Amino acid sequence: MSTAEETAGGEVQPWAEVTPDAARRLLLAAVEAFAERGYHATTTRDIAGRAGMSPAALYIHYKTKEELLHRISRIGHEKALHILRTAARGEGSPTERLADAVSSFVRWHAGGRTTARVVQYELDSLGPEARAEIVGLRKQVNAEVRGIIEDGVRTGEFDVPDVHGTTLAVLSLCIDVARWFNVNGPRTPEEIGDLYAGLVLRMVGAKDAGSRS
Amino acid sequence: MSTAEETAGGEVQPWAEVTPDAARRLLLAAVEAFAERGYHATTTRDIAGRAGMSPAALYIHYKTKEELLHRISRIGHEKALHILRTAARGEGSPTERLADAVSSFVRWHAGGRTTARVVQYELDSLGPEARAEIVGLRKQVNAEVRGIIEDGVRTGEFDVPDVHGTTLAVLSLCIDVARWFNVNGPRTPEEIGDLYAGLVLRMVGAKDAGSRS
DNA sequence: GGCAAGGGTGAGCGAGCGCTTAGCGACCTC
DNA sequence: GAGGTCGCTAAGCGCTCGCTCACCCTTGCC
């Protein structure tokens, strides 16, 4: 299930699209710093320092500190949406597709916790226009999950009295992994993904929820 | 289920213990500001302004800005722990106690979203000693929930292969309510609490999970 | 009335912030 | 080898930050 973008350490590196090299190094440094201390507590001097550059170098590649966060947030959300779409629009029953979606979404939040933290928790640090764009992406994320659940209800595989509320809860459960997951903890992203897929199948009342590991 | 501390607006006001009055007004202003913009993005001038005071007034009642966050975080965690303890150590079957714990815990996160946001998401803004103290409280919170689940497994009411992982997931689900809950949204804290209690009973494989609203 | 005590204010300190500007060296073109 | 371009740096601007300090007003006690 792991893609070519994953390193041995498990951290996803989907930043190949960012060029030139110096801009990518700055963006990576910003992701680390934002994840560790939060957007507002991070200084441009810190970002530039982590990238091995002077503070002024940042402004050659990015207009403002906020543009850095915006770029990170957009790329991250697009990646998350892509992961969910792949699972949601794949073949298989709604049960299989929901399990696939949850486990891969959770793996992304755990394995790429650094990025996921920035993506999920620094939304409010964006300005109004940037936030509006990101909110649009989040609605698409929501729609993908709701789509699978609706499919399962239609086929009779799921028993879900409140589709909207349950969709919200499922996504919420996955997203919060980025808050508590610890790389040095006892569980791998894969283990959390499997555990959560099973829990979510139970939440939607899937017929064979118990039969999965 | 609502306590005397709840106002008509649904926002909990457990700050009666903070005296004198000026100190409480400052703390309340800080809770609002931290919840809206985050600890690091909030200025002491903003806090004092919301409380109708000059910037210097803050330092009569609190040594630093961080002490404000520490006090808020401790009081909030103690309140959350008290809510969970009341449900966990009440009478009734594990199923009833778990449903009670989840619904009241969720109600607190939704209804007192302002406070809950600060309590749950600004932990990393505390210094090492203050954070260590709060982490201790969080472990007690975790233990209460795990205790109920273990009871349910023992009586055979629950079917939980991974007690620690499921405990983590249940708490995570409840806590994340503080991130997304919207006071102007379509659902009341009570509705979310009931919905989540039902979902959690399904997660632990409770026998009568489906029979609850 | 005298006066200490405590809650409050206006002004401002030193530091660090996001960001700008002038200029430098490596490289390409001809 | 002269000149232009690009990526980058050293220095620093204007501003706001957390926090302090000298002073003031109200209150209660004798």
TrEMBL record, chains A, B:
Residues 20-80 form the HTH tetR-type domain. PANTHER family: HTH-TYPE TRANSCRIPTIONAL REGULATOR RUTR, HTH-TYPE TRANSCRIPTIONAL REPRESSOR BDCR. It comes from the Bacteria. The keyword Transcription regulation does not apply. InterPro entries: Homeodomain-like_sf, HTH-type_TetR-like_transc_reg, HTH_TetR, KstR2_TetR_C, Tet_transcr_reg_TetR-rel_C_sf. The keyword Ribosomal protein does not apply. SUPFAM superfamilies: Homeodomain-like, Tetracyclin repressor-like, C-terminal domain. Residues 43-62 bind DNA. This is TetR/AcrR family transcriptional regulator. Signal peptide: none annotated. Keywords: DNA-binding.
